[in-house]
Amino acid sequence: MTAIKPFGIISDTHLHNWATFSHINADTGINNRLQWILDEIWRAAEKVKELGGDTLIHTGDVFHVRGNLAPSVLNPTVELFERIVNELELNAYILAGNHDLEGKESNRLGNAAVALEGAGCTVISGTFVDSHAKRVFLPYVNGMKELRQILSDVAEGDKSGWTLYLHAPMNNVIKGIPDNGLSPVELEELGFDAVFCGHYHSHRVFSGNVCSVGSITHQTFSDVGTKSGFIIYQDNTIEHYPTSAPRFVDYDTDWGEEEEIEYVEGNYVRVRLENASNEDVEEIRKYLKSRGAAHTQVIHVPKSEATRDDESTIDAGASMKVSIVDWCSKQGYDEQVIAESQSIIDEVDAA
Predict the structure, then answer these.
(1) 275: alpha, beta or left, given left = phi > 0 and alpha = psi -120 to 50?
(2) 297 with 270: CB under 8 angstroms?
(3) CB 118, CB 90: distance < 8 Å
């Protein structure tokens, strides 16, 4: 029996000239936070090559700003994937995510990632079944009813030995977000050896090798507490490689020495201070700088706004998205409105 080569999976790179904590690299003219993401993609590709693999798969949201792709983002991205395809000799498959699309529906004309075909990538804007490699690719679908019908169609027959790649909301990935997406159980029941899902920015593996790939890096404070990085898949085993790029973290006064080193050094650190004076702010900034923080954001929180004991709490990184989703659900809006609201929040974060 021929051994199956390992291959890599990345997702939700959201390539963009990010504004917060950024600067322009003097030598290249590239936004430093964009460069971090590009470097992580290259790191994933190099790991695939090192392990003897020949394929890198992206499960959607290559770019961030819908319908408005800056040349200063596109050009270094094309150059990177040219290197992956030509220097590393990898096959690169790129799935359309909702952020890659000019409109609500996935099609080749409105998919910004199609620009990477010129770099030698296979860009997927519609359902694609690769019978040779036993892979099914499903780009972003605008509507859960339509998505479930497509999944039912592509899962017909024996799917043992096959893998599925899609860009869609999946339940139970991020704490606090209501169950408006696909459940891990229904994905497992499709019968694939493994399912790799992009869209939500945290890595998690469920029963049956149903996997939320997670974003390759943190991008905003909405990502606090999420697991970012890339995946190597081999012999039905999913191995996650955490990002080496700076993470967004919320400072915890209960951290010990080792936790401060892990969570502060090299990262973007947010601190909430109750009724802080200017001296308090300056003191915490100096302290976190001495601990190696890349950047610090201090938020003043009046004591009167502190959470009451009887209030529900959610992860800080997902608080805004969760609040909007909860409000939309209570108003009776469907998943399309919810998805659009989350996209708007992402674009506000980017600005």
Answers:
(1) left
(2) yes
(3) no
Instruction: Tell me: pLDDT of 311 over 50.
Output: no
- 119-177: pLDDT as tens digits: 999 999 999 999 999 999 999 999 999 999 999 999 999 999 999 999 999 999 998 88
CB 213 within 8 A of CB 59: yes
Q: How far apart are CA 137 and CA 128, in angstroms?
A: 5
Integer Cα distance of 1 and 339 in angstroms: 44
> What's the DSSP call for residue 323?
H
The residues pairing with 295 across neighbouring beta strands, listed in sequence order, are 268
Q: Of 169, 211, 210, 155, which is closest to residue 188 (Cα–Cα)?
A: 210
Could you state, in order of their start, the residue ranges of all structural domains in the chain?
7-242, 248-350
Answer yes or no: are the C-beta atoms of 34 and 15 closer than 8 Å.
Answer: yes
The rounded distance, in Å, linking the Cα atoms of 140 and 97 is: 5
**What pLDDT shows up at residue 10?**
98
Q: What does the DSSP 8-state code read for residue 290?
A: H
Enclosing H/E stretch for 333: none
HEC profile of 18-62: CCCCCCECCCCCCEHHHHHHHHHHHHHHHHHHHCCCCEEEECCCC
How are beta strands 268-274 and 295-301 bridged, if at all? parallel
Cα gap 112→219, rounded to integer Å: 20
- CATH topology classification for 7-242: Purple Acid Phosphatase; chain A, domain 2 (3.60.21)
Q: At which residue do the structure tokens 């109750």 appear?
A: 274
Structure-token pair, residue 157: 């027959």
Q: At what angle do helices 319-331 and 335-350 cross, to 10 degrees?
A: 150
CB under 8 Å to 300, separation ≥6 — which residues?
Answer: 273, 274, 275, 276
Q: What is the C-alpha separation between 169 and 200, in angstroms, rounded?
A: 6
pTM: 0.86
